[in-house]
Structures are given as structure tokens and as C-alpha cells.
């Protein structure tokens, strides 16, 4: 091993054991842990409170709807029996099947097996508030729930934005460190590294949303873009059957982190590019000013040289008025100095 390798290993060893480096690493780890834990705690607490506020009211509406539906079904069955199989009951069932898709939304009555305001539905709702996605497919009905949403929005939106920015920056720095560490590997074929980032983004946009069953493949891509951009139009929402709320939360979290990292990287590229343009413009301005100064100095020197040559060719050496000094004129004849 040569001296350079030994020095390199010594530097690496000293960096690992440097108290300042260790303290900095520990501080970064704590900040990342807080950026993950605080939104998670806010999400769990919000889900529990929203379920407490809204689920009893939803249960009452569900019971009223079920009672009314059963009464209508019994009535159609009686009509069917009294009028000798007129098909009223089957028509009623067809009617309910036909209009049920149009009853979805924030004013609808959910299925008893999949209520809006159970724990997972409340977590999904709080997540859409915290991330500002806000699909709007259902909303609180009670005054307590509305007051809680006001307070929850004020507290958690800035918290999540700050946490997402910190985590995205940390992810960008980690990717950059990995790239610099493996520069010899990626230096000649850097498109492999960029291709990996692009492939990861395409995975979140084109592949993973298929599991949420929002419609056709075009609808899936549309839903993914609208979700990860936090636009949240609400015309398509993820299917939350089979306890998939938390799967959607994880998907959108990592998707938002990826988008944030890409935006952070683009911002760094923009800053570097802007600094490069500013430096080039400043250098060009200095070069232009220096060139003008040299040109002006050259013009003055040329002008003085031309005047001197003209005076020598005519034989006149101008003196101040009243000086009796002799001057040379013409072909070398000395005469009294001329006055200017």
C-alpha cells in the first residue's frame, strides 16, 4: 500500500471517529426520526379522534337507511305477492343497483361492511388533509368533527410540509453521496444512475397505483399524477377495501418523497446553473470593460503618436506664448519661437 492509500484510510478512520462528525450524524438521525414520527403520531391521533366524533353519527344514518331500505323491499314484495308476480320487487332491486354508483360521495351512506369513519377510513381522511391532497369524497357531518378539522389542518399541514422537505432533502443528499462515492463506477456511464431514479419514478406513477382499482389503466395514471401532485380532484379515489388505507398512505408517502427529492435536485441544478450564468455574465462584463479600457488607451496613444509625427514633419515645436526660445522650422533654420 502506498502512502496515498494509507493517508486515505487514515482520513476515513479519523472522520468516522471524529467527535464533530459523530455528533452531526447523531443530530441528523434525530431530525429524520422526528420528521417521520411527528406526522405519524399526528395521523394516529387524528384518526382516533375523527372516528370518535363521526362514527356514531354515521352509524345512526346507516341504521336509518337500512330500515328504510328494508321497508321498501318488504313493500315491493307485498305488491309482488298481491298482484301475481308483476316484477315490482325485481325492478326495485334493479333500480337500487342502478342508482347505487351515483350515491357515492360525501353525502352518501356507506356499506355497513366498509364505513367511512372506522379507524382506517379516518386515517385515510386525516392523511388527505395533512398532505393537502383533499379528495373530498367524504367529509365530517358533526360540529365536533368540523371544529377538529379546522384545528387539525392548521397544525398538521405545516408540520407535514416541513417534514417532507427535510426528508426529501435528506434523500437527495443520500443519493448524491452514493453517486459521489461510486463516481468511478458511474462516471463513465452516469446514465445508469439517472436511469435508476427515472425507473423508480415510473414505478410509482405507472405500476403501483394499479393495486388501488380506480378504473382503466389511463384512469390509474391520471389518478397517480393527480394524487402525487396533491391536486386531488376527487373524481377518482382509491378503493379502500381489504384494509388498504395504510397501503395507500405508504404509497403516497414514498411517492411524495420521490417527487420532493426530484424537485430538490432540480432546484439544486437550477441554483448551480443560475450561479454559472451569473459568473459567466460577470466575467463577460469585466472582460468587456477591460477591453474598452485597453481600446481607449490604445486610441489615446495612437492620437498622441500621430500628433507628434505631424509636429516633427512640419518642424514646429510649440512653446508657450512669450517664451523667446528658438524653434526649428522647416529645413532646419532656427527662428524665434512661435506663439500658439
UniProtKB/TrEMBL annotation:
GO biological process terms, semicolon-separated: stabilization of membrane potential
Annotated Gene Ontology cellular component terms: plasma membrane
Subcellular location: Membrane
Transmembrane regions listed in the UniProt entry: 32-53, 147-169, 189-208, 246-266
SUPFAM superfamilies found in the cross-reference section: Voltage-gated potassium channels
Topological relation to the membrane, as annotated: Multi-pass membrane protein
Keyword Transferase tagged: no
Residue intervals of the Potassium channel domain: 117-172, 203-269
Alphabetized InterPro entries for the sequence: 2pore_dom_K_chnl, K_chnl_dom
GO molecular function terms attached to this record: outward rectifier potassium channel activity; potassium ion leak channel activity
Coiled-coil ranges per UniProt: none
Family as reported in the entry's similarity comment: Belongs to the two pore domain potassium channel (TC 1.A.1.8) family.
PANTHER family, per database record: IP11374P, POTASSIUM CHANNEL, SUBFAMILY K
Protein name: Potassium channel domain-containing protein
Provenance organism: Heterosigma akashiwo (Chromophytic alga)
Organism lineage string: Eukaryota, Sar, Stramenopiles, Ochrophyta, Raphidophyceae
Amino acid at each position: 500500500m502506498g502512502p496515498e492509500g494509507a493517508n486515505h484510510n487514515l482520513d476515513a478512520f479519523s472522520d468516522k471517529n471524529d467527535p464533530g462528525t459523530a455528533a452531526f450524524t447523531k443530530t441528523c438521525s434525530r431530525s429524520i426520526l422526528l420528521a417521520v414520527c411527528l406526522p405519524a403520531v399526528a395521523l394516529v391521533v387524528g384518526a382516533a379522534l375523527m372516528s370518535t366524533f363521526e362514527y356514531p353519527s354515521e352509524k345512526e344514518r346507516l341504521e336509518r337507511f337500512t330500515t328504510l331500505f328494508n321497508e321498501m323491499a318488504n313493500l315491493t314484495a307485498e305488491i309482488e305477492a298481491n298482484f301475481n308476480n308483476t316484477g315490482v320487487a325485481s325492478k326495485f332491486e334493479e333500480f337500487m343497483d342502478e342508482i347505487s354508483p351515483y350515491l357515492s360521495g360525501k353525502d352518501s351512506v356507506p356499506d355497513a361492511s366498509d364505513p367511512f369513519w372506522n379507524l382506517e377510513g379516518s386515517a385515510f381522511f386525516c392523511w388527505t388533509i395533512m398532505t393537502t391532497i383533499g379528495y373530498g369524497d367524504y367529509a365530517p357531518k358533526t360540529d365536533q368533527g368540523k371544529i377538529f378539522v379546522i384545528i387539525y389542518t392548521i397544525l398538521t399541514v405545516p408540520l407535514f410540509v416541513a417534514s417532507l422537505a427535510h426528508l426529501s432533502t435528506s434523500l437527495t443528499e443520500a443519493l448524491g453521496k452514493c453517486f459521489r462515492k461510486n463516481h468511478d463506477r458511474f462516471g463513465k456511464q452516469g446514465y445508469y444512475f439517472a436511469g435508476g431514479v427515472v425507473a423508480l419514478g415510473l414505478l410509482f406513477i405507472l405500476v403501483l397505483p394499479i393495486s388501488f382499482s380506480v378504473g382503466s389503466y389511463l384512469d390509474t395514471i391520471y389518478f397517480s399524477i393527480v394524487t402525487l401532485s396533491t391536486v386531488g380532484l376527487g373524481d377518482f379515489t382509491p378503493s379502500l377495501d381489504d384494509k388498504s388505507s395504510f397501503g395507500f398512505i405508504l404509497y403516497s408517502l414514498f411517492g411524495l418523497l420521490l417527487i420532493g427529492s426530484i424537485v430538490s435536485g432540480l432546484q439544486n441544478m437550477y441554483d448551480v446553473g443560475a450561479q454559472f450564468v451569473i459568473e459567466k455574465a460577470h466575467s463577460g462584463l469585466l472582460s468587456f470593460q477591460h477591453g474598452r479600457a485597453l481600446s481607449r488607451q490604445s486610441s489615446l496613444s495612437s492620437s498622441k503618436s500621430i500628433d507628434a509625427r505631424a509636429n516633427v514633419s512640419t518642424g514646429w515645436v510649440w512653446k508657450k506664448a512669450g517664451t523667446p526660445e528658438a524653434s526649428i522650422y522647416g529645413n532646419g533654420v532656427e527662428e524665434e519661437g512661435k506663439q500658439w
